[in-house]
Write a structure and sequence with these properties.
Blueprint (H helix, E strand, L loop, with lengths): L2 H8 L3 H5 L6 H9 L3 E6 L5 H15 L4 E6 L2 H16 L15 E3 L5 E6 L2 H4 L7 E5 L6 H7 L9 E6 L6 H9 L4 E5 L9 H10 L2 H9 L12 H6 L13 H12 L1
Parallel strand pairs: 1-6, 1-7, 2-4, 2-5, 5-6
Antiparallel strand pairs: 3-4
């Protein structure tokens, strides 16, 4: 490990300062903590993309040779994630890196570390193993089945898992993990804590957007789905262990309809 990489291993926040950027306090925390399981509930335009790129570079330089996967909902988002990684890496003064000739979503650094950004499709994910850092970007918009498919990749490697997103209603694995998941380091980043988002812009957005959407997009609140007949709290409040079901659903039928009930 050369001197530059050693300095980053001791303080990964240098990834930002070497690039001429001042990291927000939450970005410093996310990089320096290197939590085994990290949940980032972020405002729109709060700095998620740069943070993901910084995490990927930190892992690639400090734990070589390593494999980092960045999972995004779409191919376009995956390509943008990798482009941000390459730009941030180049500003570290360690030379430029280029994507694989046959793919715009993966790079291999001179130290043997790989960073792969993939769209959120289960069939593109399952072939990977020995993942040392798994990042699920915009996790509230990633399919449930894909989340179930990626978690086992960490079983042998003991790698780290990072979920980051702006909320999308009171549903899905991101909401469940934020609400009741175990073993997570949780960080909420609201728009008023981001120095790049002005109070005047937020005030204009507050006047222009429905309140629930504004609070979800900028203040990290998990809002009920738009158009829902009953709120999540109303549904949960109507449940009771003291009321017996009118009839038993056969197990064969239950296994078929259960995914519909929890989706």
């Amino acid at each position: 490990m050369n001197a530059a990489a050693l300095a980053l291993a001791l303080d990964p926040a240098l990834i930002f300062t070497r690039a001429g950027m001042t990291p927000d306090p939450w970005q410093e925390h996310a990089l320096r903590a290197r939590a085994q399981q990290l949940l980032l509930n972020c405002s729109r335009q709060g700095g998620k993309s740069q943070t993901v790129a910084g995490m990927a570079i930190d892992e690639a330089l400090s734990n070589a040779p390593s494999l980092t996967l960045i999972v995004s909902p779409s191919l376009r988002q995956s390509q943008e994630s990798l482009r941000t990684v390459m730009q941030l890496h180049e500003k570290q003064g360690m030379g430029s890196v280029a994507p694989d000739q046959e793919s715009s979503t993966r790079v291999e650094l001179p130290n043997g570390s790989r960073i792969v950004a993939l769209p959120g499709k289960e069939n593109t994910i399952r072939g990977y193993s020995k993942v040392s850092l798994l990042i699920v970007d915009e996790a509230s918009r990633v399919d449930e089945a894909l989340y179930h498919a990626v978690r086992p990749m960490l079983a042998i490697s003991g790698g780290r898992l990072v979920l980051l997103s702006t909320p999308k209603g009171k549903r899905g694995f991101f909401y469940r993990e934020w609400l009741e998941g175990s073993g997570w380091d949780r960080v909420s980043i609201t728009a008023d804590c981001c120095p790049r988002i002005s109070p005047s812009f937020l005030e204009q957005e507050r006047r222009s957007l429905p309140e629930a959407i504004f609070m979800q997009e900028y203040f990290c609140q998990f809002s009920d789905a738009e158009g829902a007949v009953f709120s999540y709290s109303d549904v949960m409040g109507a449940l009771s262990d003291r009321v017996q079901p009118l009839f038993e659903i056969p197990s064969a039928v239950s296994s078929e309809i259960k995914p519909l009930l929890v989706s």
